[in-house]
């Protein structure tokens, strides 16, 4: 069978794993580093070190290729990982840009501090098509989601701040530039004062990826055990899976 490694700074990439496993059967090995989440407020050196820890762990499962289900890792150290491990790394950020190229109009890129400060979405999308990309640093969203805050006043106040540019300018498209955000996609829609295209790169990747296996093996490893994590993974996943808490890397 095909062994696919998937990783993220926490449980957000589980949404990517879920979409992939629903459409493409394979042996999936997912690692979410919820012990050290969020990555988005950390330095490039820290992010690179953490990503290396993750891949070193997953290499023990004879991985054929990797999917970086974390925008922060995608835009900071994908080239380093490709060079170090000499394997294929598909990044969710690249998939997001490909998906966004199918839409007309301007964009709000909603992501972590590190992802937005890389200006990856702005520079890449604006170089590929006539558009303006506005950047929103959604600094608190990952922590809220990882803590199980998926609705309510606290989340609404944060979303109102991070979506203010979109609401003010009525931007046609919103790119979910963090894999945690599809978990609250419905709440994002509710805080918009108009209708916009919500671009979820996980759906695009699931359609693009092709495997030839006939059965699934879905293995999830998390670096910190918590009831919130268990509950959220169970809410996200629509396929059978095995969850293991490994207690750090």
Give a brief description:
The protein is α/β, with parallel strands linked by helices and 249 residues long. The chain has helices at residues 14-23, 44-58, 71-85, 92-100, 113-118, 120-128, 141-146, 153-162, 164-169, 185-191, 201-208, 227-236, and strands at 3-8, 27-32, 65-68, 89-91, 107-111, 133-137, 173-176, 197-199, 217-222, 242-245.
Structural class: alpha/beta
Main beta sheet: 6 strands, parallel
The CATH architecture category of the largest domain equals: 3-Layer(aba) Sandwich
Helix content: 40-55%
Can you put this structure into words, describing what you see?
With 249 residues, this protein is an alpha/beta fold. It folds into 2 domains: 125 residues, Rossmann fold, CATH 3.40.50; 109 residues, Rossmann fold (3-Layer(aba) Sandwich), CATH 3.40.50.1860. The protein is 45% helix and 18% strand. It is built from 12 helices and 10 strands. It has a 6-stranded parallel β-sheet, with helices on both faces. A 4-stranded parallel β-sheet has the order 6-5-7-8. Helix 1 runs parallel beside helix 11. The chain starts with a strand and ends with a strand. The model has no long low-confidence stretch (mean pLDDT 96).
């Amino acid at each position: 069978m095909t062994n696919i490694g998937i990783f993220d700074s926490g449980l957000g990439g589980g949404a990517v794993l879920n979409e992939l496993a629903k459409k493409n059967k394979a042996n999936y090995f997912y690692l979410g580093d919820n012990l050290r989440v969020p990555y988005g407020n950390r330095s490039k050196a820290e992010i690179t070190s953490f990503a290396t820890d993750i891949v070193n762990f997953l290499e023990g499962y004879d991985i054929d290729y990797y999917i970086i289900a974390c925008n922060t890792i995608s835009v900071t150290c994908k080239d380093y990982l490709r060079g170090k491990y000499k394997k294929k790394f598909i990044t969710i950020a690249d998939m997001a840009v490909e998906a966004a190229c199918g839409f007309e109009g301007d964009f709000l890129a909603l992501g972590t501090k590190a992802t937005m400060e890389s200006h990856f979405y702005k520079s890449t999308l604006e170089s590929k098509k006539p558009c303006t990309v506005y950047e929103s640093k959604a600094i608190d969203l990952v922590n809220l989601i990882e803590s199980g805050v998926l609705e309510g006043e606290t989340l609404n106040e944060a979303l109102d701040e991070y979506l203010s540019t979109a609401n003010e300018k009525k931007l046609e498209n919103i790119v979910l530039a963090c894999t945690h955000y599809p978990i609250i996609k419905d709440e994002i829609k509710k805080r918009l004062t108009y209708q916009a295209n919500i671009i979820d790169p996980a759906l695009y990747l699931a359609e693009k990826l092709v495997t030839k296996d006939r059965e699934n093996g879905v293995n999830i490893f998390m670096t910190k055990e918590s009831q919130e994590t268990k509950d959220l993974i169970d809410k996200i996943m629509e396929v059978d899976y095995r969850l293991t808490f490994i207690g750090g890397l």
